[in-house]
Amino acid sequence: MRLCAAGTSLAVRPPPRSQGVFELLAGHRRYVAARQAGCDRVPVTVRYGADTFH
Fold first, then answer.
1. Are the C-beta atoms of residues 44 and 26 closer than 8 Å to each other?
2. What is the pLDDT of residue 29?
3. Each residue's pLDDT tens digit in the chain (54 positions)?
4. What is the 3-state secondary structure of 30-41?
5. Cα–Cα distance measured from residue 42 to residue 9, given in angstroms and rounded to the nearest whole number
6. Into how many domains does the chain fold?
7. Transmembrane stretches, by residue range (predicted)?
8. HEC letters along 4-28
9. CATH of the domain at 20
10. What is the CB-side half-sphere exposure of residue 22 using CA atoms within 13 A?
11. C-alpha closest to that of 31 among 54, 53, 11
């Protein structure tokens, strides 16, 4: 298991109706870079009630 931290956490929101996976709101490039680096985990901030991230 490998944890990668890029300085700023990714922003996610919970799935609707508590089913499925979290939706990525911000940090798409950091997510792709972490996957390419072989990271299994990255830090995230959960935004409850967020439709978009500003």
1. no
2. 92
3. 566 776 788 999 988 777 788 999 999 999 999 999 888 888 999 988 756 555
4. HHHHHHHCCCCE
5. 7
6. 1
7. none
8. CCCCCCEEEECCHHHCCCCEEEECH
9. 3.90.1530
10. 15
11. 11
Whose tokens are 């940090």? That residue is 27
Structural domain containing residue 18: 1-54
Considering Cα of 22, then 48, then 42, then 36, what sign does the dihedral take? Answer: positive
Strand partners, 11: 26, 45
Token pair, residue 19, equals: 């089913």
CA atoms of 46 and 20, how far apart (whole Å): 15
Asked if residue 47 lies in contact with residue 25, where contact means CB atoms within 8 angstroms, the answer is yes
